[in-house]
Design a protein that fits this description.
91 residues, mainly alpha, rod-shaped
Length: 91
């Protein structure tokens, strides 16, 4: 540190190893932030795709859902059935 101060007094600039490591650490943190942002966007897009698929599945099976209700299946069990289907689609 003392040598760096002496360089600054003389009108020169210098960088220590700690300065370089700090710069590299900042670059790596920025890259990690970008990767996290891409990951979040990918998860949002995947979630939207899954929701759209399930919505279309329910729309296509409206007749089957009515039949299940007529046969005595509770609404909760129908929701569980579609929830299990959603989990299988995710995997």
């Amino acid at each position: 540190m003392k040598k760096k101060k002496n360089l600054d007094k003389g009108g020169y600039s210098g960088a220590t190893v700690e300065d370089e490591i700090g710069m590299i650490r900042n670059i790596i943190n920025a890259i990690n932030g970008i990767f996290i942002l891409f990951g979040v966007i990918a998860l949002l897009v995947a979630s939207f795709g899954i929701l759209t698929t399930l919505y279309m599945s329910v729309q296509d099976r409206a007749r089957e859902i009515g039949l299940m209700k007529v046969m005595g299946l509770s609404s909760f069990k129908i929701v569980i059935t579609f929830g299990i289907e959603a989990i299988l689609i995710v995997f």
